[in-house]
Amino acid sequence: QKEVEQNSGPLSVPEGAIASLNCTYSDRVSQSFFWYRQYSGKSPELIMSIYSNGDKEDGRFTAQLNKASQYVSLLIRDSQPSDSATYLCAVNMGGYSTLTFGKGTMLLVSP
Amino acid sequence: KAGVTQTPRYLIKTRGQQVTLSCSPISGHRSVSWYQQTPGQGLQFLFEYFSETQRNKGNFPGRFSGRQFSNSRSEMNVSTLELGDSALYLCASSLAGQGNEQFFGPGTRLTVL
Questions:
Q1: What would the pLDDT profile of A58-69 be if each residue is shown by its tens digit?
Q2: What does B48-73 look like in DSSP terms, one character per residue?
């Protein structure tokens, strides 16, 4: 069974802090990794994609990938209350465009 | 560029009925994937279509089916609805290749009574 695991949270951080979200996956040959943000009652919004080991930065967001450890993470710097949402980790495991999603981590940023 | 659109946004059906949901991908995107999202199971892959052909299918019963048209628009159908089919149905589009980023539509909220 191909799986993606995330802590369900909630992860609570104060405004301005760094939020760290983690994800592990079971399929060693996975090549493509994505982070989505989902606000309550809305659909998932793609915020980061990463394909190679190491860090990828985009504004306040940094994705980190370690294929040897089958681990991908998302760092959010200078967290804002508007970042409060569920963050979904998705891995391209099943071939073609199939994404396997984790259950998501709820992030709460308090003012 | 317009995003992924889905219609209808909300549906209420009764057990035993069937339903058809529609998805229009981002212009130029040829791959359309469908997902079901429930509080208990999270986001689960239903199927993916590319060039009018189903390329991949998730672990759902045969009551769930889909198709894609020559303009890349896609529909999914659920027959003989069950209470457990109540969910948010999401469509995502992407360029053709494996590993391409997928962009989601707003979803169709289906309630089965």
A1: 999 999 999 999
A2: EEETTEEEEE-S--TTEEEEE-TTS-
Burial class (CB in 10 A: 0-12, 13-18, 19+), A42: middle
Average pLDDT score over residue span A30-44:
95
Q: Give the one of A34, A46, A96 whose C-beta lies nearest to B55's C-beta.
A: A96
Distance from CA of B79 to the nearest CA of A (A): 23
Closest C-alpha among B108, B92, B109 to residue B4: B92
- Token representation of residue B13: 């059906």
Note which residues in 1-30 of chain B have CB less than 8 A from chain A.
none
Q: Please state, in angstroms and rounded to a whole number, the distance separating the CA atoms of residues B57 and A98.
A: 9
Other CB atoms within a 10 A radius of the CB of residue B64 amount to: 18
B71 vs B69: CA distance, rounded Å: 5
**Closest among B28, B25, B79 to B48, alpha carbons compared:** B25
B67-102 as b/e, with b when 16 or more CB fall inside 10 Å? Answer: ebeeebbbbbebeebeeebbbbbbbbbbeeeebbeb
Short-list B97, B90, B49, CA closest to B73: B49
For residues B46 and B65, is the Cβ–Cβ distance under 8 A? no
Q: What's the pLDDT at A28?
A: 84
Q: Is B66 on the interface with A (CB under 8 A)?
A: no
Query: B55 contacts in A (CB within 8 Å)?
Result: 95-97
CB count in 10 Å sphere of residue B26? 18
Residue A97 scores a pLDDT above 80: no
